[in-house]
Amino acid sequence: MAGGMAIQGDTRDYGGKITMFVLVTCLVAATGGLIFGYDLGISGGVTSMDVFLKKFFPGVYKKMKDDSGRTNQYCKFDSQILTSFTSSLYIAALVASFCASATTRIFGRKFSMLTGGVVFLVGSALNGAAENVAMLIIGRILLGVGVGYANQSVPVYLSEMAPAKLRGALNMGFQLAITIGILAANLVNYGTAKIKGGYGWRVSLALAAVPAIIMTVGAIFLPDTPNSLLERGHQEKAKIMLQKIRGNEDVEEEFSDLIEASDAAKKIEHPWRNILQPRYRPQLTMSIMIPFFQQFTGINVIMFYAPVLFKTIGFGDDASLMSAVISGLVNMFATFVSIGTVDRVGRRMLFLEGGIQMLICQILVGVILGMKFGVEGVGSMSKSSSYLVLFLICAYVAAFAWSWGPLGWLVPSEIFPLEIRSAGQAINVSVNMFFTFIIAQLFLSMLCHMKFGLFFFFGGFVLVMTLFIFFFLPETKNVPIEEMNNIWKKHWFWGKYIPDDAIIGVHHTSMKVSNY
Predict the structure, then answer these.
(1) Among 27, 211, 316, 402, which one is least packed by beta carbons within 10 Å?
(2) CA distance 11 to 508
């Protein structure tokens, strides 16, 4: 039963309507992705601005302006201090996600979102006013705390609020907000780079306050999820909220399953210790491997450093920023493909198709760069070759945007039982941020030393992750979040880890198997 089998255990359809209340609520919550997206997009553009590099990283600026023809194109931007500016945020987000786990569990998802928004706001003000590298990095660390809180709470919030049949699409509002944030950052960078007077970079960094304000104000007015209310002992409020979001007074069946899950959760005193038990092995594995693989698609190489990368392969200043805008547009529009298909074709199909498309694009980009720059990294690229690389990068970004981008957040947020959900999501976020940090810190150095082979390096990981999904991830579309154990129980590999008493709602053993 291994391989191309998608196993879907029998699960309940609780019914209920798709209410305007739940749509608006999920839309507001998803804006938490704006802060992460804006930050991903803004740093690469700012670090390619001459006036910013001259002020904070003069050594890099001098190397960049060397027109002697002897400069290795791959190594122009190799500076550990420069990459520390970008990557310090992600190590802060890693640490913050563990604090956010406790905050989310004790005070609710809404409170975590509010905290993240406020801290991010302070960080954006500090970055905009920065006078030295220390101020820049302290500001980035505060931004990281905000991102850690938002990324911990928002995907869980969306998965808990959404009805099972629309959970994929509504949860992907978070990824859509990330892509909108990236695009907005690219457009801001393109505009601020033209500001006379040398303060354009300040505007770029300070405008991070806009998504922070949107998230903070939105969080004030958001209700808490039924799951969170039950987890904190507010049973009556939880039932009223469930009726409101389902648009139906008759929610007894779903509510009884939520209570059953909540009661099981309350017996768990140490979620961090319990998540290591064999019964949670499938979820723990996915919460580590999916964010790990998401970062090793190489996507953040494109998003952090798109302007720098396009400059390296021969685009001018304006052209490199505009190319980043184009890839940002592709990223945003391709996410709509995922939103429209994830609850119909399922998670696995998008993962597999996206992986194959990314692999092809990475191999071709590596071959072109190898032919043009060689191992020495000395040479130039014709306009037609540059445009071909831009096209391949856009095709790669599109594949990511309808597969590993949104699904890397959706799948881990929907698979955890309530008793370990906050801990599981904290692991998901911290692994994601740790490897985002590693990639951000090492990429420019890796580009310098591995040269065009870097694209083959990430391509190898894409091949491995595609095979991993093919063999080990069951289909989770349309499955109520509290019944996810039913799916693991039916899986050819994971079934042996799930005890019978972990099954909620449905207790019979039939299954549906479909071939992809």
Answers:
(1) 316
(2) 10
